[in-house]
Amino acid sequence: MPTYHLSTPVDATADDLYAWHARPHALHRLLPPWEDTRLVRREGGLEAGAVTVLDTSIFGPVRVTWEAEHTWCERPTGFDDVQRRGPFASWVHRHRFHDGELTDTVDWSPPAGAVALALAGGALTDRIDRMFRFRHRRTVNDLARRSEPLRVAITGASGLVGTALTHFLTTTGHTVQPLVRDRSRLGEGAIYWNVRDGEIDQQALEGVDAVVHLAGASIASEPWTAERKEVVTRSRVDGTRLLCEALARLERPPRVLVSGSAVGFYGDRGDERLTEASSRGDGFLADVCAAWEDAATPAIDAGLRVVFLRTGIVQSARGAALATQLPLFRTGGGGPIGGGRQVVPWIHLDDLVYAIHYCLVTDSLRGPVNGTAPTPVPQRAYAKTLGRVLGRPAFVPAPAAAVRLALGREQADELVLSGQHAEPRALLDAGFVFALPQLEDALRFELGAT
């Protein structure tokens, strides 16, 4: 029976580590984004007898149910879990926590015993190692960004960024209250709002420490007809105004509002280096972002500290631009788009989540803040790096004419063929430290590539 072992230094006590793992969303933070694994159900928390059931892919479309039971738990020492059914013949996992150190040890056996071990033992060991190195690195990064507990209201909490932010905040000890449009989901601290009808439960916002506003219709999921452009604009402007007018009326307003925006504010600026002090650009997205930020005026006038997070192109295997490109790049069909000279203002999803949290707890940050990595790259360099990480060629060009034909000229020019060399000057000046500032490291972390 092979044994896998990994120990990693961490700036945390054993009790910190136990508490992080005991919180409900810790498992979501620990599931590698490149593994197609979904939580089916949990029965209990971090106590002996608790059961976790996962649905996971073991090879392409071949899926299995993985059921594990906690057989021993002791705070702050650690806990054990054992596979009751799943992809392995046996799996016994021992989590151990020490002051300054995180340790995982797994005794495992593959299905079909010695034959499978001889034929595929190396590949399985590598897969296990990649998973645990990801888990340890994310745990260390999360714990390095702890702060005093906050009660945070979030719009758009079910989206890609909102979900990751919710999981991070709750696992590091904060309380999250999502704003929801469905009254049937109002349990567990949720706050009702309905932008279309101009309704918001203002009383439920009393006393929250912070608000993160991420809601808005997708800019990429549908063609930019006149009607769709109106939906995109109104979802942002009307939602922001409704929220900010409510916050301005509160007797106990939040300390800070982090309101979504985007680097589209700057328009297509070629190689020009852009900071938060740069002027607004031209185009539909620039118009939307400007109106979006202007809609927060009631909160600013009421004295709230307001941050406009101008987000770049988020890197996540679970959604957004990277997930859309992966199938093509995995077949070797990726490459430069429209010549590839446009600058990609990318940011890893974890760093975006950490940046939002940093904006919540850093009083000096207000006004526009670029949510981008400090190392933007031309699109052709991005494509080459992604191909290298995946071990695939990345030289098949996508001419600008073909992109415009597929998306329409305006949408293609603004979403795909334009670029912004946006730099996160405000974050860096305020002392923010990126966890994944280099593109290749960020992609390898996200895709489990060694």
Looking at this protein, list some descriptive labels:
36% helix; alpha/beta; 8-stranded mixed sheet; 7-stranded antiparallel sheet; single chain; globular; 450 residues; 14 helices
Write up what this structure looks like.
- The chain has 450 residues and is of the alpha/beta class.
- The chain has 14 helices and 21 strands.
- The protein has helices spanning 14-22, 26-30, 113-143, 160-171, 226-248, 284-294, 297-301, 320-330, 349-361, 379-390, 400-407, 409-415, 425-429, 439-447, and strands spanning 3-9, 37-43, 51-59, 62-74, 78-85, 90-98, 101-109, 151-155, 175-180, 191-194, 199-200, 210-213, 256-262, 273-274, 305-311, 313-315, 343-344, 346-348, 367-371, 377-378, 421-422.
- It has an eight-stranded mixed sheet, with helices on both faces.
Mean pLDDT metric: 95
Number of E strands: 21
Beta-strand residue percentage: 25-35%
Largest sheet: 8 strands, mixed
Strand order of the largest sheet: 11-10-9-8-12-13-15-19
Which structural class is indicated by helix and strand composition? alpha/beta
Task: Please compute the radius of gyration using only Cα atoms.
Answer: 23 Å
Quick one: overall form?
globular
The portion of residues assigned to helices is: 25-40%
How would you classify the quaternary structure?
Answer: single chain
Secondary structure tally, helices = 14
List the helices and strands and how they pair.
Layout: E1 3-9, H1 14-22, H2 26-30, E2 37-43, E3 51-59, E4 62-74, E5 78-85, E6 90-98, E7 101-109, H3 113-143, E8 151-155, H4 160-171, E9 175-180, E10 191-194, E11 199-200, E12 210-213, H5 226-248, E13 256-262, E14 273-274, H6 284-294, H7 297-301, E15 305-311, E16 313-315, H8 320-330, E17 343-344, E18 346-348, H9 349-361, E19 367-371, E20 377-378, H10 379-390, H11 400-407, H12 409-415, E21 421-422, H13 425-429, H14 439-447
Parallel strand pairs: 8-9, 8-12, 9-10, 12-13, 13-15, 14-21, 15-19, 16-18
Antiparallel strand pairs: 1-7, 2-3, 3-4, 4-5, 5-6, 6-7, 10-11, 17-20
